[in-house]
UniProtKB/TrEMBL annotation:
It comes from the Eukaryota. Residues 1-10 have a biased composition (Low complexity). Residues 1-23 are annotated as: Disordered. This is Uncharacterized protein. It comes from Trieres chinensis (Marine centric diatom).
Length: 134
């Protein structure tokens, strides 16, 4: 009898057992919430990346404007310094010329005065000598 039951069970296919999972199965609400969060995270990531790109582009353009302005100011300062140096050079030359011209005029005037003084003193000496002789 036990051999007959073994033979009978060997001929019948084993019963399929459906295992009952104890894991909670996701509901539609959970799936929808997960999908919404993924979409939101994707949109947020793209928005943050686009915002960062925009900020980098704005910062780059502001830097370029500032750099251009700084370069223009530096060039203008260099030109003005160059002009100032030229003006100072010409001023020194003109000042030196005027000083030399003035010194020359003073020397000429002094020489003329000295000559007149010598002539006057010579005439005076002649007059004094003529008065003594008379």
């Amino acid at each position: 009898s036990s051999s007959s039951s073994l033979a009978a069970s060997a001929q019948q296919p084993p019963k399929r057992r459906k295992l009952l999972s104890l894991d909670p199965c996701p509901s539609f609400r959970d799936q929808d919430l997960r999908r919404t969060r993924l979409v939101h995270a994707d949109l947020l990531a793209h928005h943050v990346a686009e915002h960062a790109r925009r900020r980098v582009a704005d910062a780059t353009s502001e830097y370029n404007r500032s750099f251009r302005s700084s370069t223009e100011l530096h060039d203008r300062k260099a030109r003005l310094q160059n002009d100032l140096n030229k003006m100072l050079y010409h001023h020194r030359i003109e000042s030196g010329k005027r000083k030399n011209d003035w010194a020359l005029e003073v020397a000429i005037a002094r020489a003329r005065w000295q000559k007149r003084k010598e002539i006057w003193e010579a005439r005076r000496a002649q007059r004094d000598a003529a008065m003594r002789a008379s």
